[in-house]
Amino acid sequence: METPPRPILDVATDAGFDPANLQTYGPYVAKLPLPARDYPGEPAPLICVTAVTPTPLGEGKTTTSIGLAQGLARIGRRPVLTLRQPSLGPTFGIKGGASGAGASQVVPTELLNLHLTGDFHAVTSAHNMLAAMVDNHLHHGNALGIDERTITWPRVLDVNDRALRHIVIGLGSKVDGVTRQASFDITAASEVMTVLAMAHDLEDLRRRLGRIVVGYTFEGTAVTAEDLKAAGAMAVLLRDALRPNLMQTSEGVPVLIHTGPFGNIATGNSSVVSDRMAAGLGGEMIITESGFGADLGAERLVNLKSRAGLSPTMAVMVVTVRALKSLSGRYRVVAGRPLPPELLEENVDDVAAGISNLEHHLGTLKRWGLPAVVAINAFPGDHAAEHEFIAERCAELGIPCAVSTHVADGGAGAEELARLVVQCLEENPRTELRRNYELEESLEDKIRGVARGVYGASDVDIAPAAAKELKRFTDLGYGKLPVVVAKTHLSITHEKGLDPSGEWRLPIREARLAAGAGYVYVLAGAMSTMPGLPSHPNAENIDLEGEEIVGLF
After folding, report:
1. How does 21-47 read in b/e, with b if 16+ C-beta sit within 10 Å?
2. pTM of the entire structure?
């Protein structure tokens, strides 16, 4: 029989929060107060849970993070877990819910995956408030002289809807606004989401919102949310959304759920405020999950988020047998469809053919100076010989490795992994983080540093239009910002199936500015910021049976 969650006020009290300062949302969720000060004394070590290149179905970083936290608690440690909130787009699209699995979940799972406390809706509203004020400004005479051809601010919606990628607005009569081309992104791709994730406090949030650039004047100067007098209203809409949400794992370990920037087109990590909050709880370690493979979420943590918050002390690299077999190139894995039956049969040669991907990501962690532990997320259909092969290769590389059965067994199945993590922290109490570039370098050289140091490219090919934008950003004073490379999560390169060990160059086709979030991002390959639904989305399976939600996972 499933154990019901503990009352959230009991979880909060045990974690060190004053229940009087919490805003509860029913018996199992609470909004936390913003931290009054920065890290008290020496902050707890930050453990980054990352992974090999995932299959379209994902390889279990979230559930491994949860299982690890539960395993650490079982061996007498006091971990705090910080995770992103799931987006409704993937929940109703291909992936389904993102609350973990089996005996290692955030509970109640339905609350986590469906709206939670409304933070995503607050981001959507704040983002679209600015979009409305841009078009309202054009309609009422355009006093700022905005060149409407340069407007870069889309609208957003937390739904996968390919029909909204390119639209025309303002159709109708003159009073219906200025007719122009526009677009929609998914809410998790909004710069406002990343602003929320990177802000330290309300003052910092307000400043960052004001710096958002929506387009340019005919003279070429940047037009900001502050210029449009929109930033104050946006901050009001986001005031409560800046407060992290407290939940718990299946075994009652506290979890801070906050923000949800995508890992391939944004920062892919939980918020700076969550880390600050976790650091003040007196826990022995903070566990955070970085989206997709180490080339995406972990790279953002190292080169971007850590410049504004805590730096990682070590990493846990999640790997699965099915991922390595898929990465061998011998199987076709399609999101939403069953795995090929042959992939589930015992075949160490297939694992060997894909293990170079694990080695590549471990090499990246080593270049960053991050000690690592490998966690084999075990599936019921795995074979012992395949696990043994992965462990032996890790031993050859000098990397500790543990098979974790946390999905089936909860924290008990992650105790070996937890002990390896504790041992790694004891042997490496401090980490000298080595980033891929310095902020004083040019934007082009920063992109090159990531392409060479993380993806293994020989160089970059920047399209003329992208090069023109990078120069514009530099001329306007944004040249010292960090960079984000938006690319596919299904390959270390920009293209699924391209071997990163060969000679190849990274193509950059577009450059965009996220001045409020604090970075410049470039698009490599065919990237979209508004996903589409598959032919049979998960939404078809979700329904109500009485008051019970079914089909979410």
Report:
1. ebeebeebbbbbebbeeeeeeebbbbb
2. 0.94
